Amino acid sequence: MKKMLKILPILMVVAMVLLVASPVFATTIGGVSIDPSTNSANSVSNIGNNILGIIQVVGTVVAVGVLMVLGIKYMMGSAEEKAEYKKTMIPYLIGAILLFAAVNLASWIVGIANSIA
Question: In degrees rounded to 5, what are phi and psi of residue 40?
Answer without folding.
Answer: -85, -5
